[in-house]
Amino acid sequence: MLLNHGRLEDIAVEEGIDALIATSPENVTYSSNYWALSQWIRRGPQTYVVLPVADMKQSRIIAATSLIDLLADQDVWIDTVQRFGFFQADRAPDLTDDLDKRQAALYDLQADPSALEALKRAIGELKLEASVIGLDELGLLPGAWEELQAAFPRATFKKSSETFRRIRAIKTEAEIDRLRSAAQITERSIAAALSKAKEGATERELARAFHTQGILEDAMPVLGCIGFGGRGAMPNVQPSDRRLENGDVIRFDVGGRYQHYRADIARNAVLGTPCERTQKYHSALHTGVAEALALIKPGVAAKDIFLTAVAATRDAGIADYQRSHVGHGIGIDGYDLPILSADSTDIIEEGMVLCVETPYYELGWCGLQVEDTVVVRANGVETFMNTDGRLQVLQ
């Protein structure tokens, strides 16, 4: 299961919340295992998950009739479904396939006229009219919040997108397995791209090789920053027809999505013999990540990880190194808590999955970046990486 039930209950009690309602794609899938296609490919489609904290067995999914076929074909843990809206799906007189039968049963459910009307019915049936309801504001359409408040004047609605982020910060073992796979697929995809890194190859050619390998391993393309030479200094570089030349640094800041879970790692290679400065700076960035990883364990302040990474990078050779952050949590979203920054108030906890990074961008020269993904265990970190992040030299 993806949802960390125990953490949800603890945080809800701490915040005085009686029920949580997920509305954004990440929180809907995290809360229920239900992937509602339309939510993930365009803005606006509504899907909700209602989670009564005192009795999670009463949780329910509110789904568009046009998407309930996916409910029949996915491993959701919630039994109660409400559908809304019209969608025509004809059926043969005699259904024998189990999937067809499950779909037919869902199509036979009562249909509410809209997502919001279905949510109002759920709140009423669950007797939450006078409760404190944590409502994920990120997936709602304009005016929905006000309409709910008007419909339930005795209820207190609290914005809860940050509450969901707090819950998601500690991963279940099922999530950790997916994140480990995502990171390692990304490593193999970088290797596939580098196999094409010959003089004259283009950034696009490496990107195609990278994404193709990911797709072959069931990871869908999401992040593909691949730049040569001076283009690698663009933090968000997108592959172009720039051709690889001898001496070029290749910067990867990349990751796919595997079973809904994200990867985000960074590696560097040089075609030919790297110059002394490239070796020095990359070694300093590598040291910064290594020192940060050595510090991480439960109870450590995120800001101390930031200070350690920056200081270690400076001491190792980039005297004026500066960063806004040196990493972040990762999960079903690319940026989960914690944030490893100077002003972060986050404290590291066991079960967090972190991307720890030390990027360096110098316009007119190149970009260099080391980024690893790890999970926090009781006494330190378990790395997901099979490569060590050192500068790769291609001949």
TrEMBL record:
PANTHER family in the record: AMINOPEPTIDASE (PTHR46112), XAA-PRO AMINOPEPTIDASE P-RELATED (PTHR46112:SF2)
InterPro entries in the record: Creatin/AminoP/Spt16_N, Creatinase/aminopeptidase-like, Creatinase_N, Pept_M24, Peptidase_M24B
One Pfam family linked to the record: Peptidase_M24
Organism: Hoeflea poritis
All copies of domain Peptidase M24, residue ranges: 178-377
Domain Creatinase N-terminal stretches: 7-170
Protein name per the record: Xaa-Pro peptidase family protein
